[in-house]
Design goal:
The chain is α/β, with parallel strands linked by helices and about 300 residues long. Helices cover about 40% and strands about 20% of the residues. The protein has a single domain, classed as Alpha/Beta hydrolase fold, catalytic domain (Rossmann fold, 3-Layer(aba) Sandwich), CATH 3.40.50.1820. Helix 1 packs across helix 10 and helix 4 packs antiparallel against helix 6. The N and C termini lie far apart (about 40 Å).
Length: about 300
């Protein structure tokens, strides 16, 4: 899995925009734009534990195709001023009701003329779906890449997966956070995030602590276009997992595609596509163009 270390400075062509929440959490939103006034904006949510910087190649490929991209930074990762620990905890509620609205407000204020599309990788795709359900008018559609519901029954070795969902919250409570860098899964994740994630993995249903909204009902009401790109050899995002996630949004107009090693000129798994994302960018940009043509 890619490191979450900040790494080298971003290119001068990348705008690092400050994002502030009312609760004091801050981060940088990375914005890349094509020349002129872009008409399309992809607001991108990373996978669990992955810093926004790791998606710069995807953003650059999208910009070359005429689509602006804003890369969201998860709380606790990369440029965020928070770090998960015994004194700092948060869950899906904070991500969905504080951080995402703040980041989207910055992006849309900077590009008010652009039509906004939500997109995400893995857990980012799940949370993009949940946010869209809570705010169905804020995005024109949803692009999922290597994503799917974490329900344990959808995976090979399902018994081991289910056990992991039982152990992960216990380990996070013991350590004060999930030590993802040490165990080789995700970043150092907040206890609340792991509780919400593990609950959805055990039950197959989405519910966020201290959030009154019915997330299942909200996603079921979505009616906009949806693109789902699956990697052929992705054991972390098998077809059954994607099917389970899409079944929660039955009224969306879904387009599905599978990328193969031939498409990517390399491995077609959960993370390898990030190193050579042009085929993914081409499919997302082409899908956006198709949706725009259909709307006119």
């Amino acid at each position: 899995m890619p490191s979450t270390d900040p790494g080298s400075p971003v290119s001068p062509a990348v705008q690092a925009l400050p994002v502030f929440t009312a609760a004091g959490a801050t981060s940088e939103l990375l914005l890349l734009c094509p020349a002129g006034e872009p008409r399309q904006l992809l607001y991108w949510l990373p996978a669990m534990g992955i810093s926004a910087r790791h998606y710069l190649p995807l953003a650059e490929a999208m910009v070359a195709l005429g689509v602006a991209v804003a890369l969201h930074e998860w709380r606790g990762i990369g440029s965020s001023n928070r770090r998960a620990g015994r004194r700092q905890d948060w869950a899906y509620r904070e991500l969905l009701t504080e951080d995402l609205p703040a980041g989207l407000a910055v992006a849309t204020q900077r590009l008010p003329q652009a039509r906004c599309w939500l997109g995400g990788h893995s857990l980012g795709g799940q949370l993009a779906s949940l946010y869209a359900g809570l705010h169905p008018t804020q995005a024109a559609g949803l692009a999922l890449v290597a994503s799917g519901a974490p329900y344990w029954r959808c995976f090979a070795r399902s018994g081991l997966i289910r056990m992991a969902y039982v152990l992960a919250p216990w380990l996070a409570a013991l350590c004060g956070h999930l030590p993802g860098r040490r165990i080789g899964f995700g970043g150092n994740e907040a206890r609340g995030v792991i509780r919400d994630w593990s609950r959805s993995g055990r039950s197959g249903r989405y519910r966020a602590e201290r959030l009154d909204a019915d997330l299942e009902q909200a996603t079921a009401a979505l009616e906009f276009p949806l693109l789902a790109l699956r990697m052929q050899d992705d054991w972390l995002g098998p077809v059954a997992s994607l099917d389970w996630l899409l079944s929660k949004m039955p009224r969306t107009r879904s387009t599905r595609d599978v990328l193969t090693p031939q498409d990517l000129a390399g491995r077609a798994d959960h993370f390898s596509w990030m190193k050579a994302p042009v085929p993914v960018a081409e499919r997302i940009a082409g899908w956006i163009a198709t949706q725009e043509s259909a709307a006119t």
